[in-house]
Amino acid sequence: MQTHSQALTVNGLSHTYAGQPAVEGVSFHVAAGEIAALLGPSGCGKSTVLRAIAGLLPAKPGVISLGGRDISPLPGRERGIGMVFQNYALFPHMTVAENIAYPLSFRGWDRKRRQARVEELLATVQLGGLERRLPRQLSGGQQQRVAVARALAVDPALLLLDEPFAALDRALRLDLQIELVRLQQTLGITTVIVTHDQEEAQALASQLVVMNRGHIEQTGTPAEIYDHPASLFVNSFVGYAGKIRAVVESASAAGSTLKVSTGETLRLPRELRFAPGSPVVLTVRPERLSIVDRPSDFTLAGRLLVSTPLGPDVIRSIALADGTEIKLTEPRDLRRSPLESSAPLFIALDVVNLHVFPAGEAL
Length: 363
Ligand SMILES: Nc1ncnc2c1ncn2[C@@H]1O[C@H](COP(=O)(O)OP(=O)(O)O)[C@@H](O)[C@H]1O
Ligand SMILES: [Mg+2]
Fold this sequence. Notes:
Layout: E1 8-17, E2 20-30, E3 35-39, H1 46-54, E4 63-66, E5 69-70, E6 81-84, H2 96-106, H3 111-124, H4 140-152, E7 158-162, H5 170-187, E8 190-195, H6 198-204, E9 207-212, E10 215-220, H7 222-227, H8 232-237, E11 242-252, E12 255-260, E13 265-268, E14 279-284, E15 290-292, E16 299-310, E17 313-320, E18 325-331, E19 344-348, E20 355-358
Parallel strand pairs: 3-8, 3-9, 6-7, 7-8
Antiparallel strand pairs: 1-2, 1-4, 4-5, 9-10, 11-12, 11-14, 12-13, 14-20, 15-19, 16-17, 16-19, 17-18
The structure holds adenosine-5'-diphosphate and magnesium ion (MG).
């Protein structure tokens, strides 16, 4: 099966439900054939953005273009977009074949042409032989594939998926994620997937659009977002980040001094863009911390609370002197003797990959 994939551009999209703004000034670009994830907590406006792109919400300020053409004035049916809804929204009294053929009847396709197309789509999503089943006679994963086949029926230039894996258990989810990526790559169709699951977004998408409270916090590749989070929100939402409160004492090109909530002083060999006296939050990824024997300019004293093995790694929960808890991961068998619980130790911060945010941002 071939598709004609096209680039998607969303520019200045806003939407208000009965006077309540849900989405404001949302702009992003998805290159042709690319898969992007709209990622954010429940209620942040992801589905609203998806529905606006699909033309399911009344036209509002903002431009949505597909393949360079402004599609915002077009009704949903004429936009060349296929959409899979959160609960799949299959018609319960229609067979698999009837569900898939539904959008084709609207286009005036005759029975024979519809049948051929349904067969082709069922083969694409590997559901051959199940055309006469009703949705309730299918597993969750199979229902999802029917919904994908129906979305692909009209040969869309863009595929939208709203939380496609939310209803499935974890083990099945991984299989279906791999299957979806394979299908997306085979078809080469531009795809936007909505999810509140940051691991899922990182696993599926080549571009993340991270949303919070109706606006975009950051867009970038999963690695860019993970390594260079633009805000404390992004830092905490995508992957784990330990948070340590501090006040900037001095900051110059020669180095910066921070007074930590524990009472300790950190001297970092880098400049910080904060005025002396600014309250800040330092964030540390668990894999960027290490346990060392001696204190230095960039260590903090800690006490081991608990160690949890996870595959080849061990995760250590550590309490700093003021009770602040942070996590540290390290390869499991590198240390010669196991660490005693409550053992005093020093945590070395990675001064390059340490992020510093204004303390005013919501934690
Ligand atoms: N039909 C609606 N009428 C009124 N408010 C809505 C409607 N749909 C969504 N909202 C509100 O808009 C905000 C964004 O919702 P939504 O786009 O569904 O978020 P998400 O998909 O990220 O969970 C939420 O505060 C939600 O309560
Ligand atoms: Mg939603």
